[in-house]
Amino acid sequence: MRVLIADDHRLIVEGVKRSLSESDDFEVVGECSSGSQVLPMVGRTNPDVVLLDLRMPGADGLTCLAQIKKRYPEVKVVILSVTTDEKVIQTVLQRGASAFIVKSINPVDLPSALRQAVEGTVYSAIGLPDPGDSAAKAAGLTERETAILTALARGLSNEAIGKELWVAEQTVKFHLTNIYRKLGVSNRTEAARLAYQNGLVESPIDDH
Predict the structure, then answer these.
(1) Alpha carbon 208 to its chain's center
(2) Which CATH architecture has domain 134-197?
(3) b/e sequence 133-149, b meaning 16+ C-beta within 10 Å
């Protein structure tokens, strides 16, 4: 998968390259530090996906997104941004981006997120923060794991959890493996029971 990175922060660019280098599925074919460079670079490098920052000198990400979708509709665009504003995220997705990735994402999840975006199976945003839970933290669970455990305890499938939390189903499975290990359980039922018994998640309430 050929990737073009467009971001004016060198640290981000190097971090993305390092993350993608962990997988044999990706080749970084170009880098841009200015919005005005993006469209010409897409033409020269013929990427499968453009990883595009929302704020860059020269032209902002939304402008670049519109230009790419008009000139090269077959190229996927994934927005990479620090914002978690839902209005911004929805605007980006409505204008044709394949996915929205928050820069706080665990680098381990980036290759999977890009792969899912290109395949058209990713859910809208990845890397959004979740509310913490002190009891869950005491059990060694991260905020993301707590959110997934809460959804699991409500009886949601991996696919439904992915849709609700805006992560790929593959990412949900990865976190469930860690949750089972930390809680010392072997399946969903045991995890849910333990979560309720120890106050890791609130008791279920019928929203309907």
Answers:
(1) 30
(2) Orthogonal Bundle (1.10)
(3) beebeebebbebbbbbb
CB atoms within 10 A of CB 29: 17
Residue 3 buriedness (CB in 10 A; 0-12 / 13-18 / 19+) = buried
Task: Provide CATH 1.10.10.10 ranges for the chain.
Answer: 134-197
The top-level CATH class assigned to 2-126 is alpha beta
pLDDT in tens, the chain (208 residues): 999 999 989 888 999 999 988 888 899 999 999 989 999 999 999 999 999 998 888 888 889 999 999 999 999 999 988 887 778 888 888 888 888 888 878 888 888 888 877 776 554 565 555 544 455 666 778 878 888 998 998 899 999 999 988 889 999 999 999 899 888 889 999 998 888 877 777 655 444 3
List phi, psi (to 5°) of 149: -65, -40
pTM value is: 0.60
